[in-house]
Amino acid sequence: MTMWELYDELIEGIDPSATADKIIRGAYQTLVISGEGYGICNTMDDTWRPSVLPSKSLGMPLRDLAACVKSWNFSEASIGLAALNAWYNEKSRLKASGVEVSDLRHTEDRTNDPFITYQRDVRGKTVTVVGHFPYIEQLFAPVCTLRIIEKFMPKDGDYPEQAAEYLLPESDFVFISSYTFVEKQLPRYLELSRGAKVTLVGPATTMAPQLARYGIADLSGFVVKDFPAAERVALGLAGENFHSLGQKISMRF
What we know:
This protein is an alpha/beta fold.
């Protein structure tokens, strides 16, 4: 695949008539709203490149806003990923794709947490996780050979991102954080992981069935269900955790 193929397919899959109804840039979360779709992404403040986002973004086609995910201004690219998620992670669209979405405000996460559900599968295997997720050592280290690649807040024993070139081809299972989509590492990581079972994981994971064509076996993401609270949290007006405002979801291929 070409490096932009994955991005372009997801962008072009958005209905041209969908619009960006609201954009909220919080200190920690970015939220894009389109109709009944609420897409989230971690707010990223890296702004080495100038912004190309129009000053008047509200009401613009959601597809055009989502195209910002290709920007090398990572602050802008995080808005683009949230826009993609506003389309693909919308509740009715997820149900149409066969994803089980509860009608409850919050649903127990264990059934769709890959680091819990894959404990048996990874036993005795070599596993590389891109992103230091909470409790990953407790869940995986006792049952497999675990290597963690972490760029932002590395802990003792973590590998730098440059190690991906060496670790991913050796792995049986690879779990990749969705932030790699914003930083443009995902296509290369998928190439390196061709011999592994790959899961894309994190609340900003785009739940698009098209991703199966690129070597991803499992999408582990999040659907927002308490819309007013999600807006308050993104604006910094409430102290709730985003994970309490919806449900972890999974799409396996």
